[in-house]
Amino acid sequence: MTVPFLLNQRYQKILRAAVQHYIATAEPVGSNTLVREYNLSISSATIRNTLGKLEKAGFLYQPHTSAGRIPSDFGYRIYVDKLMVPDYKYTKRIIRTLNGQLNQKFYDSNETFLQKVAQILTNLSGYIALITLPQMFPNKLYHLQLIQVSSKQIVFVVVTNDYKTKSILVDIPSVLINDNKEWLDEKLQIFSNFLNSHLKGRSIFDIPNSTWATIDQDFIDYSDFLKGILKQLRNNLQLSISTQIIIHGISEILRQPEFSKLKQVKMLIHLLEEEQDKLQSLILDVPKNKLLNKQVNIRIGNENPLKSMHLYSLVYSTYCQHDIPVGSIGIIGPTRMLYENTIPLVESTANYLSKIFSLKLS
């Protein structure tokens, strides 16, 4: 998409106001409304002209010719990434609510505890809360093997003590690039022997605690590569395991004006009842570069790979046990979501759950 202008301060101000108005009212916005309700210090004619340019650029669109404009998925994305500031003052209320209403000692299982967490999320947001049950009992490593599969890639094969196999494809690092295939095969076998001797029989929870003090001089140049593939192993093993998903808040979200039509209601119910496996995969699908840094991930409308999610936004994050992802937490709402509150809500709750489940192994 070609934007015919840069989003200077004036365009940002008008786009921000248009998005905020639609989020608050679910009503298309026109220039007169923006002049009347927002202190923009810009004339109605200038606002009207700017709204037209924003529409041509794809940030807004008109549901019909006589209506005002509403944000597109692209407009929401720019708003979330560039124009919005999460309300982190809201974080204090979230933590106070979680601490006040939850005490894990009073719950007989993780499921009942997380059911209560999901209920709190729905009450605070007005949207649907999703939480996967934690994978608390990781498998022991039985065998690890590095195998060259092409001139640029290696497959890392892992067998756990229950004889399940996991394969991870990784790029060959620059320090191992060599035209001599036999030389590389020999190196990979040495690395495989090294990893097996140090990690066989260990839980993947132990991997981050490895000091690597035993790496001798022959392995110094490859330590980053070895630690990198082990990090991928840890994340893949934890988040690839199928787990139950807790869903709460269907009745709450049906009060939103987007669901006044029966078709939207049927699509939502089908998604939550018939496509739970796909939904679970979606909230477990965290970009690798975001997996361990507490960031919240946001998929808006058509950014969701599931067609049945194109009317919604998904805000989600992982929660951890000693920095190892063991589950995910997410909120589904209309694209007209109050992102300023939803983002800190998901982040704060994920951090809260991480502390709770890390204490289990302390």
From TrEMBL:
Transmembrane segments: none annotated. The keyword Transcription regulation applies. Keywords: Repressor, Stress response, Transcription, Transcription regulation. PANTHER family: HEAT-INDUCIBLE TRANSCRIPTION REPRESSOR HRCA (PTHR34824). Residues 111-343 form the Heat-inducible transcription repressor HrcA C-terminal domain. Negative regulator of class I heat shock genes (grpE-dnaK-dnaJ and groELS operons). Prevents heat-shock induction of these operons. This is Heat-inducible transcription repressor HrcA. Belongs to the HrcA family. The keyword Repressor applies. It comes from the Bacteria. GO terms for molecular function: DNA binding. GO terms for biological process: negative regulation of DNA-templated transcription. SUPFAM superfamilies: GAF domain-like, Winged helix' DNA-binding domain.
